[in-house]
Amino acid sequence: MPYPELPRPDVPASIAVVRDFVNTTEMETGGDDLTTPTELARYLLAEGLLATTTRATARELALARDLRAGLRAALEDNHDGRRSVLPDLEAALGSLDVRLTWTEDGASLTPTRAGVRGALARIGIAAHQAAVDGLWWRLKICSSDECAWAFYDHSKNRSRQWCEFGCGNRMKTRAYRARQKAAAPA
Question: What is 13-183's CATH number?
Fold first, then answer.
């Protein structure tokens, strides 16, 4: 992660799982934390989505990258206030094996596989839980084209456009300077 962690209010666990997964790619520099199956397995283990060290396959890496791209597109929709059907996300989620179970606490979704596919299913389940909890619409992509970082909108009316890393200030300063330059006598 290229940015320092800043103090901020708590982020619900389901949101943090999805946000952190989407942020494994950095749009500004093209950096990617998931370029090999080994990196994918390490990431999932470090995030607590895998219980033990497991090898990932090239096919699982492709699925993870498709899932991440689909979730990013969904977050871009959240930012723009759209609610569109995303076939790529639907295809990635559709290839994850989950089961609906009933417990003393009620219905829940659980992965039916262990390993990397099970860990990826946990990410999909986290996105589902965020939607069930009414929090999904608060997970957005920063408006700064230089950043495009996934963030949780803590604002009361869900109107934030920029992440916590000063992007809003930079964008407002640039707009101010452009207005000043345009208004300056020649």
Answer: 1.10.3300.10
Instruction: Name beta bridge partners: 151.
Output: 140
User: Which residue reads 């370029």 in tokens?
Assistant: 35
Integer Cα distance of 24 and 50 in angstroms: 17
Instruction: Tell me the pTM.
Output: 0.81
The number of helix segments (H) and strand segments (E) in the chain equals 6, 6
Domain ranges of the chain: 13-183
Among residues 98, 21, 106, 26, which one has the least CA distance to residue 67?
A: 21
The predicted-structure confidence for 10-68, as pLDDT tens digits, reads as follows 888 889 999 999 999 987 788 899 999 999 999 999 999 998 889 999 999 999 999 99
